[in-house]
Amino acid sequence: MTLPETGVADMPTIKQLLTSNGYTGRPAIACDASTVIDHETVRTLREYNYQIIGRYLTGNVATGNGGVRSKAMTHEELSILALNGIRVFPIYQDGGYYHEYFVQGRGRSDAWKAIRAANELGFPSGTTIYFAVDYDAYGFQVENNIIPYLEEVRSVIDIAKGKGLPEYKLGVYGSRNTCIQAQGGNVSADYSFVGNMSTGYSGNLGFPMPKNWSFNQFHEMTIGLGGIGLALLGIDKNDYSGKDPGVSAVNPPDTSEVSKEYRAKHDAFIEIGKNIPGLQEFSPELFATNINFSATHRAFNIGNIVTVDVEFSEQLNPPTEGGTTTTLQVTPDGINGSHESLLGDNMAQFTQNRLGFYEDFIDNIATSIGTGAIQMTLKGAGTSAELKVTAFKEEIPVEGGGNLQLAVTVIFTVDIDMTDVTDAFTSKEAKVVGAVLGFVFLLALAVKTPAIVSGIAVASAIALLIGDQDDIDDGSA
């Protein structure tokens, strides 16, 4: 903590030993708040000597009259804080206060939304984003739900590195036990923002502070005088270790503010795109930056052998001529028909492990769509093959009212001359492409699609080249 070293077991020291929050009257130079800071409230922060503040990247918070207000940072707010010498550390929380929030896939979508928001606001590389676990997670819940969620966040942050995006650090907000568990392993959180204010949390009872703690939230209060004096501001007081310096100035990209319609459409793309094999690895900038929904985006290519393109539309387009198309209708209850009825006799060509991957792929895409369709079109001739995978979401609610539609189409094109194909699949990234191609081509062929010999040849060749034995069940594919 940040208690002074006096050599005496005084009242603040004793209280710190008894409860996680300790003596709440101790001074602090750090705080966090859900209120957008303006010229009036920044004066209050300065008067009370607050030098660093935690603020939210996105979201709303409930008000006393049953309504909601935005808690998300603005460009103007960050300018005001910078001019007044107050640093900022960003927090991501669009939920996270109940156990059921932490499900498979949530970490990936939250991470992309956080990176997108931080990038739009101009937070530079090296900024730590704190992802909130804002409830008393028991030990088994931390192990079974929170850690897998944070592992997904870590994977996205690592994917974004070296891709022309800011390189952010991973912070965790939660109880002592949650933060301790997230320090190592596959999460390896850079810093912890410890919620010690919740003294009754089981995760704060009997646990030491995590070694990587940067902020320690210990008391909720209102500062300011009100009336004609300083503006009132609700804050949480934080101890500050000095490990995370926060951000003193931002440099937002030269883009205009996005509309609610655009944000709703891009959020829908993130939910869909995270479930399309390889798309996050191929083209992470689609998830984290403002994109043109009217353009075709080249996600990846290996010479003249493999190309991966992404297209968007506001409707489900008719099937491509000259190919074989399968359309799976999707409702909130899932796809129409069982996996067995979809795959039919072709189930026999897959190993159980691979079959499980395919079933998860279809289920995850269907969940992200809600109501709409999954469409797969495959055509091929000779050594060439093209696969279009389209996920169509029929109902995208817009904040303030209204609905939109979005179709996300990923086009995989392969043109292989088998004489020198081996050399093309030697790099790590190329092997990822090969694995994805083997996955999606064989799936498209299996889902009630007549066998196209060239398509099977291409997919089989790629799978064998990268050594993915699960893509080819011996003698059956």
TrEMBL record:
SUPFAM superfamilies with a match to the protein in the record: (Trans)glycosidases
This protein's name: DUF1906 domain-containing protein
Domain of life: Bacteria
Ybfg-like C-terminal domain location: 276-415
Ranges for domain Rv2525c-like glycoside hydrolase-like: 44-216
